[in-house]
Amino acid sequence: MLQYIRPVAAVEHFMEAHTAFLQKHYDSGRFILSGRRKPRSGAVILCNAASRKEVEEIMSEDPLEKYQLALYEIIEFEPTKYASTLGK
Description:
Elements: E1 2-4, H1 8-13, H2 15-27, E2 31-36, E3 42-47, H3 52-59, H4 63-66, E4 70-72
Antiparallel strand pairs: 1-3, 1-4, 2-3
């Protein structure tokens, strides 16, 4: 999860670069889904990674992190149940 720590107008300035960051990791198979929080105070990214360290390295590439526009909270979990449509 990420929380904006600057005004949305400042975040918008880096949204194209953030979108490219997202696409890079969708293409690599690391990102599963992402989207804005409601109200628009940040976003959620579901990431498949081998370790917390790998997630931290990935998130350090995000322009929103690099330019101190958002704070990341990494929540680790092990799925025990999922919708059958997710595996398709």
